[in-house]
């Protein structure tokens, strides 16, 4: 049986199970990281934990979560993001205005991610590469 990519352990800690290609992407400290692989290889599932890691590394600010198309965003990428950031980590909420989703960290999410409350909101904007 294949382990799920994310699970919460008995101690309440988050466990992320990655294959070697995903580990290589997660460990990269380059400014631009490209994950090029076939279908169903875990690219979309990796995007949320990778962004989380980047937010921890780079600190508060504005971030983008980009999918190749709006169709893929709606069907796969946004649900994967919400599962990781909202359900598992409980860092904030995705809201939508004018059909444009955005994620804002909650005050508790700021403390969890950045150790203290921030003077400026951290925002994740969602877009498709086609636009």
Describe this structure in words.
This protein has 131 residues and is α+β, with helices and mostly antiparallel strands. It has helices spanning 20-27, 43-58, 70-88, 107-114, and strands spanning 6-8, 14-16, 62-67, 92-97, 100-105, 123-128. Helix 2 (43-58) crosses helix 3 (70-88). The N and C termini lie far apart (39 Å).
Percentage of residues in DSSP E strands: 15-25%
- Uncertain spans: none
Summed up, the helix count is 4
The quaternary structure here is single chain
Overall mean confidence score, pLDDT: 87
What structural category do the secondary elements indicate? alpha+beta
Amount of helix: 25-40%
Query: Helix-strand pattern, N to C?
Result: EEHHEHEEHE
Q: Let me know the largest β-sheet.
A: 4 strands, mixed
Which key features would you list for this structure?
131 residues; alpha+beta; four-stranded mixed β-sheet; 4 helices; globular
Condensed summary:
By secondary structure, the protein is α+β, with helices and mostly antiparallel strands. Helices cover 39% and strands 23% of the residues.
Protein topology:
Blueprint: E1 6-8, E2 14-16, H1 20-27, H2 43-58, E3 62-67, H3 70-88, E4 92-97, E5 100-105, H4 107-114, E6 123-128
Parallel strand pairs: 3-6
Antiparallel strand pairs: 1-2, 4-5, 5-6
């Amino acid at each position: 049986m294949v382990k799920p990519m994310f699970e919460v352990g008995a101690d309440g800690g988050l466990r992320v199970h990655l294959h070697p290609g995903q580990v290589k992407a997660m460990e990269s400290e380059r400014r631009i990281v490209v994950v090029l692989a076939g279908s169903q290889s875990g690219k979309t599932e990796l995007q949320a934990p990778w962004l989380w890691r980047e937010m921890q590394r780079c600190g508060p600010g504005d971030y983008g979560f980009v999918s190749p198309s709006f169709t893929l965003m709606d069907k796969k990428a946004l649900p994967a993001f919400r599962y990781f950031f909202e359900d598992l980590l409980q860092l904030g909420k995705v809201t939508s205005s004018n059909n444009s989703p955005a994620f804002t960290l909650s005050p508790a999410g700021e403390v969890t991610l950045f150790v203290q409350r921030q003077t400026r909101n951290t925002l994740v904007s969602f877009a498709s590469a086609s636009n």
